[in-house]
């Protein structure tokens, strides 16, 4: 995307400690790995990296992403190799100090991989001192005859930190879901759900009330219901928001219409992430830049988004008190320059 930060924003974003908490590992596959592996089939980055590109549908987006993902993710070792590059880049180039990522149970099922080995391989790719928390994403219809044994087993994998509800949002929620999400929490796992992206507020209500999640991936269409917005603020739910993804998938038409700033002003806790950079061609710095340039977010609001990622980390805010102090000082320094 064409979001280039200029001074003083560029310096602020370079120094701002950040988190990335909504990142699909398959959707974050570094382009150069595909290109080096098979330059004939993957000669140049996908056209969806272009600024004005819009996916026609979620199905088209998913098909294009899976075409790339299936070519690479054929073993736990491949997950490890990709994850190392992804995490190193986030840490070194984007000043990221805490990561939550998910892998797709569908990949485990279709490729026939050992899910626990994949979770371990991703976790082992964490750069020194950077906590990485790993989730398994399950589609609305992903609890199949074939996947059920490893999904049930996964609730006891030490390397897995939680479950995330993935996939086509408009496919109805099936009766197994609430039980699996509840048992995951009983086993000490965290639970998330993608909602409020293609479905409206009613589906956000459903994942909060039926699945008991407090962590919602996207959730931006909650803005359509003031009652829901108040509820999310009251219960302290967290929305892991990815604005560039929302634009390219047509969830929001223009960045200047994106509801993240309004949600924050209504007291809803939001964080900022990239979702699937191999499809959108986006970076975390561009996400922050977009909010500054097109939504008029202040340095304090950008700092708030980054701080929320640390405050609501699974590892607990106490482990990141140094980062929170650093953000506060940085914001104080830059507020004078606005
Ligand atoms: Zn996502």
Write the layout of secondary structure elements.
Blueprint: H1 9-15, E1 18-24, H2 31-37, H3 58-72, H4 76-94, E2 96-104, H5 105-111, H6 115-123, E3 132-139, H7 148-154, E4 162-166, H8 176-186, E5 190-195, H9 201-209, E6 215-218, H10 226-235, E7 238-241, H11 243-248, H12 260-265, E8 269-272, H13 277-280, H14 284-295, H15 299-311, H16 321-335
The protein binds zinc ion.
Zinc ion (ZN) is lined by residues 22, 24, 194, 217, 275.
Keywords:
338 residues; alpha/beta; TIM Barrel; 16 helices; 8 strands; 46% helix; globular; binds zinc ion
Count of helical regions? 16
What structural category arises from helix and sheet content? Answer: alpha/beta
| Hetero compounds | zinc ion
The first-level CATH class name: Alpha Beta
Order of helices and strands: HEHHHEHHEHEHEHEHEHHEHHHH
Oligomer: single chain
Instruction: Determine the CATH topology.
Output: TIM Barrel
Give the total of domains: 1
Could you tell me the strand content as a percent range? 5-15%
Mean pLDDT: 97
Instruction: Identify the CATH architecture.
Output: Alpha-Beta Barrel
- Helical coverage, percent range: 40-55%
Q: Supply the CATH superfamily name.
A: Metal-dependent hydrolases
Word description of this protein:
- The protein is of the alpha/beta class and 338 residues long.
- It has a single domain, classed as Metal-dependent hydrolases (TIM Barrel, Alpha-Beta Barrel).
- The protein contains 16 helices and eight strands.
- An eight-stranded parallel beta sheet has the order 1-2-3-4-5-6-7-8.
- Helix 4 (76-94) runs parallel beside helix 6 and helix 15 runs antiparallel to helix 16 (321-335).
- The mean pLDDT is 97.
- Bound molecules: zinc ion.
- Zinc ion is lined by residues 22, 24, 194, 217, 275.
């Amino acid at each position: 995307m064409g979001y280039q930060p200029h001074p003083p924003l560029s310096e602020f974003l370079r120094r701002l400690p950040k988190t990335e908490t909504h990142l699909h590992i398959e959707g974050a596959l570094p382009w150069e790995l595909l290109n080096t592996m098979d330059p004939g089939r993957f000669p140049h980055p996908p056209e969806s990296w272009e600024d004005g590109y819009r996916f026609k549908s979620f199905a088209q987006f998913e098909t294009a992403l899976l075409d790339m993902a299936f070519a690479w993710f054929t073993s736990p070792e491949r997950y490890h190799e990709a994850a190392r590059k992804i995490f190193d880049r986030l840490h070194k180039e984007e000043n990221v100090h805490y990561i939550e990522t998910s892998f797709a149970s569908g990949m485990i099922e279709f490729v026939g991989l050992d899910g626990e080995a994949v979770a371990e391989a991703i976790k082992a790719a964490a750069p020194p001192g950077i906590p990485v928390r790993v989730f398994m994403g399950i589609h609305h219809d992903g609890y199949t005859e074939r996947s059920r044994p490893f999904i049930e087993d996964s609730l006891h994998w030490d390397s897995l930190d939680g479950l995330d509800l993935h996939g086509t949002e408009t496919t109805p929620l099936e009766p197994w879901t609430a039980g699996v999400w509840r048992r995951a929490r009983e086993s000490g796992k965290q639970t998330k759900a993608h909602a409020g992206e293609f479905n409206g507020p009613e589906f956000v209500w459903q994942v909060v009330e039926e699945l008991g999640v407090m962590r919602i991936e996207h959730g931006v269409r909650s803005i359509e219901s003031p009652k829901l917005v108040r509820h999310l603020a009251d219960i302290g739910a967290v929305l892991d928001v990815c604005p560039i993804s929302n634009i390219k998938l047509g969830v929001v038409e223009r960045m200047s219409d994106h509801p993240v700033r309004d949600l924050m002003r209504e007291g809803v806790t939001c964080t900022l992430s990239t979702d699937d950079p191999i499809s959108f061609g986006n970076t975390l710095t561009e996400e922050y830049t977009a909010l500054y340039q097109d939504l008029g977010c202040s340095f304090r609001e950008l700092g708030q988004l980054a701080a929320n990622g640390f405050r609501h980390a699974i590892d607990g805010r106490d482990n990141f008190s140094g980062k929170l102090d650093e953000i506060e000082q940085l914001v104080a320094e830059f507020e004078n320059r606005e």
